[in-house]
Structures are given as structure tokens and as C-alpha cells.
């Protein structure tokens, strides 16, 4: 297996790792209306969610790093842009990781607070929950989506993977950005049928792309046509 083929396979595996970690990073108790009263009893959910979201950082950045040497042969500026957006997304991932333990602190304070204090903690909790949604489902997804637009544009031009797969990625990335804007302007909430449906094309495309990279890698025959 040559270097480019091995890098593509590792990148595909990292996509799958990131998807699994993403599913495990969901903290169901935070979607409950009275989650502050419940969160202490579901501490493990928060811990697993934080660890899983942390795992997503090297998975997402590693994907870009392993693809970068090949992508830069198509367009160095765009490949740097793609890597840059992945690093920005990693920063938002890290913020999301830091926010999760704060919910446990609020839950502990809520359990000991009187009625007046509890109402203030509930208001603070809603603010924190909104901030986490904006980080994870707006800032993070938009930065990933913009990077993905660059990635799939390069893949479409280079034909490293079939053009139907690159075009699917472009549509999926655009849909994900649209979903984030709908959350931002409060036209939908996260974890709703509309939000999930708009994000579904990119999620499915990511899985297909990962399998393709592992099984087939890039079509490096096109490298001969690069300008460098």
C-alpha cells in the first residue's frame, strides 16, 4: 500500500471514529425540561459526552492532516483553507467539552438551592444550554461546513473520488450550513425532525466517503495532470 493510499484509508477510518464519537457525545438528559434536577443522577452521560466530544478533535483534525499532502497537489490555497476551518472547528469542539462539566456544577448547586436560588440557576442553566447549542450546532457546524465546501470542490475538480460523491458532499455541506442558520435565527431547534432531516445528506455522505477511502482511496492517476 503506497503512502497516499494508506493516508486515505486512515482518513476514512478517522471519519468513522468521529461519527461514533459524535453519537456518543449526545447527552440526552440535557434535552429534558427540568434537566438540572436530573443531571446529578446522570453524571455518567455528561462524562461520556465530554470524553467523546474530545475524541472528535483529533479525529476531525487528523482527517484533514492525512488528506492535506494529496489535496495540496490540486490547490494549495484551498487545502490550507480546508485545514484551517478544521482547526477552527477543533477550537469550538474544545469549548463544547469545557461547557459540559459546568452543567454538573449547576446541577449540584441546584440540588442545594432554595426556591429563589433555584430559579436563578434555572435561568443560568438555560443560558448555558443555549450557548452550548450555538457552539455545537452553529459555530462548529458552519466552520466544518465551509471547510467541507472547499474539500468537496477540490475533490470534484480533481476526480480523486467519483464526481457524484463530491457533488453529494457539496449539497450535504450546504444543507448543514443552512440547518445551522435556521438554528441561529430560531426557526428550528436542535434534535428536531427538520434539523435532523436537513443534516442527514451530509451524515450519510460522510459514511459513504469513509468507506470509499478505506476500500479504494484516491484515484491517483489524475495526479499526472496537476500543475503542482
Report what the structure shows.
The chain has one domain (3-220). Helix content is 79%, strand content 0%. The protein is built from 7 helices and no strands.
Features:
elongated, mainly alpha, 228 residues, 79% helix
What's the main sheet like? none
End-to-end CA span: 23 Å
Radius of gyration: 20 Å
According to DSSP, the number of beta strands is: 0
- SSE series: HHHHHHH
Overall residue-averaged pLDDT value: 92
Low-pLDDT runs of 5+ residues are: none
Q: What's the number of helices?
A: 7
Q: Hey, roughly how much beta strand do the residues contain?
A: under 5%
Tell me the overall shape. Answer: elongated
How many domains? Answer: 1
Percent of residues in helices: over 70%
Structural class estimated from helices and strands: mainly alpha
Secondary structure layout plus pairing:
Blueprint: H1 3-24, H2 35-38, H3 43-71, H4 76-112, H5 115-158, H6 163-184, H7 193-215
Structure summary:
This protein has helices at 3-24, 35-38, 43-71, 76-112, 115-158, 163-184, 193-215. The chain has 228 residues and is mainly alpha-helical. Helix 1 packs antiparallel against helix 3 (43-71), helix 4 (76-112) packs antiparallel against helix 5 (115-158) and helix 6 (163-184) packs antiparallel against helix 7 (193-215).
